[in-house]
Amino acid sequence: MESLIQEFIDYLGHEKGLATNTLESYSRDLKQYYGFLSGDSTASLENASQSTIVAYLMYLRKQGKATATIARRLAALKAFYQFLVKENYVSSDPTNDLSSPKLERKLPKVLTVSEVERLLNQPDLSTPAGKRDKAMLELLYATGIRVSELVNLNILDVDLKEGFVRCMGKGSKERVVPVGDIAVSALRTYLEGARPKLVADAKEKALFVNHHGKRLTRQGFWKIVKKYATQAQIRKEITPHTLRHSFATHLLENGADIRAVQEMLGHADISTTQIYTHVTKDRLKDVYAKSHPRA
Question: What is the mean pLDDT of residues 266-288?
């Protein structure tokens, strides 16, 4: 089964063009399903039935897995079995008639404009690392790109003169996003006065590098964000996508067209972007309730 999982992952990467993080998630989920099957001497990939899949989902529920996690595992199994049937490795798909558990759509956590400003003002601009951190935070809030897209940027992906950044999103889809003047200024300061001191190899293509002079990782950036959130005394729960969520919400609150926001975020389906309209409506209700004398 391990070789079939790898063949499936290769297929998703080469034929479907899925991102590395997505491929790793599929691989991890399917290997855990393999571990579940291995615990039953009578179960196998070939003879798995709908009852087998249901038993696996119940096993995940007993482990305390969230509904979203179970839905993701089932989606991985559905895609895997469809591939196996297509390639004639199995004769039938045991996931065929199973529907995904209904998800409770959680509204994303966002920062207020003042909280964003506090966060963005934390880096120490007297140090190369501080200039780098300032540039990263400003760029993330200015564009709403994903953290994975941020750390994968190369120097040539940024045009400071024209004010835009080119990034590769999910499904290897390229998009161009405008960058505001403040973020452009922070990037120029970093590129001219800090990156040359941080980079180890002059041929390094990565836009943002760590203290070893190599491309900064997603985990490395996340540690940086948490540090500055603590310094800024922000009590809200922060995630790697908090600035992305805040970017979208603040744009819509100030009258931006939802289609334009969808394009900048790189959402394939506008329903994904529409969740931010719910956030803005909730915040408007909150302001009304606190401010209107007869609310």
Answer: 68
Residue listed under structure tokens 């297929």: 11
- The residue whose two tokens read 């909730």 is 282
| pLDDT tens profile 133-142 | 999 999 999 9
175 has catalytic annotation: no
Exposure string over 254-286, b if 16+ CB within 10 A, otherwise e: eeeeeeebbebbbbeeeeebebbeebbeeeeee
Cβ burial, residue 106 (10 Å; 0-12/13-18/19+): exposed
CA angle 72, 224, 248 (to 5 degrees): 55
Active-site option among 73, 132, 146, 195: 146
Q: Which of 195, 244, 245, 250 is catalytic?
A: 244
Q: Is 61 a catalytic residue?
A: no
Distance CA 159, CA 194 (A): 18
Which of 65, 214, 267, 283 is labelled catalytic?
267
Which one from 65, 78, 241, 283 is the annotated catalytic residue? Answer: 241
276 part of the active site: yes
Among 170, 175, 214, 215, which one carries the catalytic annotation? 170
For residue 273, pLDDT beyond 70: yes
In this model, does residue 41 exceed pLDDT 70? no
Q: Is 267 a catalytic residue?
A: yes
Mean pLDDT across 64-77? 88
117 bridge partner residues: none
Q: What is the pTM of this model?
A: 0.63
Calculate mean pLDDT across residues 19-33: 90
The per-residue pLDDT for range 71-124, each reduced to its tens digit, is 899 999 999 999 999 999 998 899 988 877 765 566 678 899 999 999 999 999
CB atoms closer than 10 angstroms to residue 142: 23
Taken in order of first residue, the domains within the chain and their CATH numbers are: 2-86 (1.10.150.130), 113-291 (1.10.443.10)
